[in-house]
Amino acid sequence: MSYDFDLFVIGAGSGGVRASRIAAGHGVKVGLAEKQYLGGTCVNVGCVPKKLMTFAASYAHHFEDAKGFGWDVSASTHDWGAMISAKNSEIERLNAIYKKMLTNAGVDLIWGEAKLVDAHTVSVAGQTYTAERILLATGGRPSIPDIEGAREHAITSDDVFFLEELPKRAIVVGAGYIAVEFAGIFDRLGADVTLIHRRDEILNTGFDSDVIEFLAEEMGKQGIDLKLSTQVTKVEKHGEEYHVTLSSGEVIVGDQVLFATGRSPITRELGLEAVGVEMTARDMVVVNKDDQTNIPSIYAVGDITDRMALTPVAIGEGHALVDRLYGGMPNRYISYDNIATAVFSNPPIGTVGLTHTQAEQQFPNDIDIYKSQFGSMRFSLAERNEKTLMKLIVQRSTDKILGLHMVGQDAPEITQGFAVALVAGATKADFDKTIGIHPTAAEEFVTMRTKF
């Protein structure tokens, strides 16, 4: 049978763009449908602009700390509008790069909302296209729970990037990585921040317990008001203010309410049920190890597959998939073990491998814990009361490093390097015989000797 395309990709986010470009490089005819913007959440309303905001917010502490090192620095105001404008220009530049990259690769970019017609046909803006294979890579979007007034008055993480001004009193609901990151950004730029979470600790079980406890303490020291084990029952607008009622009966007043309470897959509008694509109760697409759905011609990668919702994972999945299908590499798969992650909180987190709880469950009575908590040299003259936490989890019987965790300045950068060691199967003895770079915070990982 003759098709319009060999591969038709729905969604020009991280996974879809990579899959499209690599597949075209393998010589296949590729169509790529996108209804909003190139690069998906990460480039437009996610990790890239959020990291730019994190950089902007970090200058508040830099200016303060500079005085301790002899600098006469005065920075009393921050121009939120100028930051947003500069951010917009950078995102526009990145979108142009993505467009040029896809065009140069020979990908046919089709603008509009795509919907499956059958196992080999897609409809986009009233036009139908056929393909031998279809790849779903639509990602996710923020979701707000069904709480009185929340969907009417609150904003999501997408909206933060387009606020016209910094809220002086910011109320953040949720305590996942998105919530704690924006709480830190608002706080350092001068807002009074209240973070509300229904559970008794921030983040989630995917993070080490020491990391969770340590970050909560550091956030509290910075003045962020953590209200844990607390439910939001109502959100109301009174003039220019927002009133948030808690399960305790307390009412918090703020200038903006951000709900960072999770994300949902963009799947309902794709026509999957009519075609018969199997989904979970949470509307995630079910795939096998080959990223293939129960419909043999339809595949899915990225956040809609309920595996690991990380940009590099989606990129890796998309790349590996088309290498298997078109690149003559049938055994090309990514590994989901020892994937390093970061939270750009204040201070930031870097983590790779198993948490303490996961290690105990997998290797009962066979783990050793090494950890260190100290004040960074960076803050010695600045007299900033901020600590750093480092932790190693080791399997006693094999001496293999199972997990590495850090909370402190430069943690994401440091963890990326050590992630290579964990992927390579490094042991505690390998760490011990490595000569540290002095004076650095990172050297602490190769000088730990005391077990806890």
Describe the model:
This protein is of the alpha/beta class. The chain has three domains: 5-141 and 264-326, FAD/NAD(P)-binding domain, CATH 3.50.50; 150-261, FAD/NAD(P)-binding domain (3-Layer(bba) Sandwich); 341-446, Enolase-like, domain 1 (2-Layer Sandwich), CATH 3.30.390. The protein is 31% helix and 24% strand. The protein has helices at 14-25, 40-45, 47-66, 80-105, 150-153, 157-160, 177-188, 209-221, 272-275, 311-326, 356-362, 411-423, 428-432, and strands at residues 5-10, 30-34, 108-111, 114-118, 121-124, 127-136, 140-142, 169-173, 192-196, 225-227, 232-238, 241-246, 251-254, 256-259, 263-265, 298-300, 341-343, 349-353, 367-375, 387-395, 401-407. The strands form five sheets. Strands 1, 2, 3, 4, 5, 6 and 16 form a seven-stranded mixed beta sheet that branches. Strands 17-18-21-20-19 form a five-stranded antiparallel beta sheet, sandwiched between helices. Strand 17 (341-343) and strand 18 (349-353) form a beta hairpin. Helix 3 (47-66) packs antiparallel against helix 4. The longest helix is centred in the first third of the chain and has 26 residues, at 80-105. The radius of gyration is 24 Å and the shape is globular. The mean pLDDT is 97.
